[in-house]
Amino acid sequence: MIVLDNVHKSFDGGRTFAVRDLSLQVREGETLVLLGSSGCGKTTTLKMINRLIEPTSGKLEVDGRDVTGQDPVQLRRSIGYVFQGIGLFPHY
Predict the structure, then answer these.
(1) Which neighbouring-strand residues pair with 24?
(2) CA dist 5 to 21, 37, 58, 85, Å?
(3) CATH code, domain carrying 27
(4) Does residue 34 form part of some domain?
(5) pLDDT digit string (tens) for 16-75?
(6) CA 77 to CA 47: how far, in whole Å?
(7) How many domains does the structure of the chain reveal?
């Protein structure tokens, strides 16, 4: 299960937020689609889950373990995802 609890991300010291007060649970076997306009925080949210960027505040758990206490490389090896705009078939 993936759990986000009151997660925030600001890149400018808290003046504006890419992600604000996000809480959600994704249970094992569920499929999640993050859908929204450009700049609404979809990619930022995914990058926080796998620790490509750190949240400003809040708690993120994968399989009951806080991701901030996990080795980022091992964590990323255990997660599969597709980012918007990245071509799975780059030659087309």
Answers:
(1) 4
(2) 8, 22, 6, 27
(3) 3.40.50.300
(4) yes
(5) 999 999 999 999 999 888 889 988 999 899 999 999 999 999 999 999 999 988 899 988
(6) 14
(7) 1
